[in-house]
Predict the 3D structure of the following.
Amino acid sequence: MSGKVETMTPELKAFIEEWKTKPGNLIMVLHRVQQTYGYIPREIAIETAELLDVPLAKIYGVVTFYNFFRLQKAGKYNVQVCLGTACYLRGGDDIIKEFEKELGVGVNTTTPDGLFSVEAVRCLGCCGLAPVAVVNGEVHGKLETKNVAGIIDQYRKLG
Amino acid sequence: MAFESYVLVCGGTACCSGGADNIVEAFASELAAAGLKDKVQVVKTGCLGFCEQGPIVKILPQGTFYVQVKAEDVKEIVAEHLVKGRVVQRLCYDPEQAKKLVAEANIPFYQKQYRIVLRNCGVIDPEKIDDYIARDGYKAIEKVLFEMTPEQVVDEILKSGLRGRGGAGFPTGMKWKFAMMQPKGQKYMVCNADEGDPGAYMDRSTLEGDPHSILEAMIIAGYAIGASKGFIYIRAEYPLAIRRLEVAIEQATELGLLGKDILGSGFDFEIELRFGAGAFVCGEETALLQSIEGNRGMPKPRPPFPAVKGLWGRPTVINNVETLANIPVIINKGADWFNKIGTATTKGTKVFALTGKVNNSGLIEVPMGTTLREIIFDVGGGIRGGHQFKAAQTGGPSGGIIPPQFLDTPIDYESLAKIGSIMGSGGLIVMDETDCVVDIAKFYLDFTVDESCGKCAPCRIGGRKLLNYLNKITDGRGTEDDIVQMQNISDAMCKASLCGLGQTASNPVKSTLRYFMDEYMEHIRDKKCRSGKCSKLISYTIDPAKCKGCTACARKCPAGAISGAVKTPHVIDQSKCIKCGACEATCKFGAISHG
């Protein structure tokens, strides 16, 4: 985790102002926060609570309820390994173990260099390609454990 | 046709990851080079369904169907097929038959399918409203707004027999009727596109391939129930579907099909997107509404039903994507056309995401009443790798496991309920003999325990207890009494849980206990897992007759569990063995086996 203090971007602030009066805005605003920073930083959560005039506890209540929101910054390359049923049957759990082994980190943790993080996700909706991993939106399908090291190298080379 | 030929490139998620974008680009440049730019149009469509064989390219008007196409193949397709009119045989689908199958209609995967919901998927460019309009799109709106009263629309849907495709199968027309009968005032129309069932992607494909059909259906529903505002609650994990919906809403608004005074009829309707954030419980109507309101997605007791008191306390109808995709067709072709398809109690078709150990994974749509055997063996091409069919699971974590003796059950809501499963939203997962049913039950319970919102005790505590028992059994510590306890807990969860998640969470356990009790008993009494999935129950042994005493396994064993002198047969100390399988992988003589 980086110790960097995030500051609210003008775009985000404008977005919050725009949504402020709409009922049921909190989840949409949090999506935008996560899109901006890659996670929900505490200082931004506090500022958002003030801007929307909702208790901070409510924001954390929502953030921790939903799987999609994260409180820690993901790696530059976020590896999402699908553990939906189809992927599970075709060996998704072996794929995730291989990623953990190759990267030396557990699920929901980021490598010390900040380059990779591993996440287990529920169905990505490409069951035809099972087992599947998605790295920053790029789908890698029909995986075997022997492919994992190559995929990591491919991103590591990009830096 | 304005063009002589059309090249349809599947732009579903599976094909995109296989390089569909590069194929589209390659076609564009090759066609330009061949001077065919004005004669052949390239369209990137929604999912064609045959994901197993992607990327897929289809050429019209001949209907030639090319599978596993790569960008390098495009030059040949253009030169041979589009210039000389000769089919590129090597790219056609060939299911182990000598005769190459050329057209889509000849491929067994498509023969038993009947497409209503997916009528436009893989046919139109989902980002062009004109493509949709050309295929009778938005025609139903005109009919509804100018020729029908809201009551007539509701009656038509009631008469069609359409039932909710989200899983429970509640008659759609009834839902609409309840909301319509509420006093005038602010009402809401909500589309549930929060497809959270692991192993299912029907809604995703529909939204990506034919977004306008959902908008059209929502406008019709809004008119029928008297709502002027609609929300599409969609998974944030589906960025492509979100983008296509945003494009579609913008285009429809531009043409006056959304917004104030639609087509001059005086009816106003607008649609907003709201993103889900990954909570399975939000498939439950009342939890979904909580989420749209910006809260934790916790269900509420019913009644009051959302049709009476829903979003912000106002009457609200919530329909699933697949349900809505049927609506414009029913309006255009009439209820009497629709209710002739299907079985006595269940009309129309069902889209399934057919996955697991089947040869042709993909997105399929079949008439209700089709049997599981037809789906798995005819459409799905049977079990992959020459394995045996063991079971199928419908309804995901809320459904049951269906054993081979029910393969000839015609699919409808009632027949599936009778054999202990549910229709569910459309996940259909096929298992073979290498899958362990106890392990599968554990997989689903693990999911529902994780996704339980924790509001009511039967689901929160019962689910956890069930999972503990399953862990005990797969670890080899189970007792026969555990089975009795599991049955009691399952029944209690069904009866006492607040919402559908808890009420159905024990279905995988109940159905596996019902049909595969012998396998549970093997785990408990014999400490054995016949599929070898439950690693703690595996024991590795060395065949002394085959062992040459090479010491390779002993050196590889991380636990130091293998002993023996050089050139004499080795032995595994079972108490030290951690069941990693390294020895078996190392042995060159095939002397080590597990069971």
About this structure: The first strand of chain B starts at residue 5 and ends at 10.
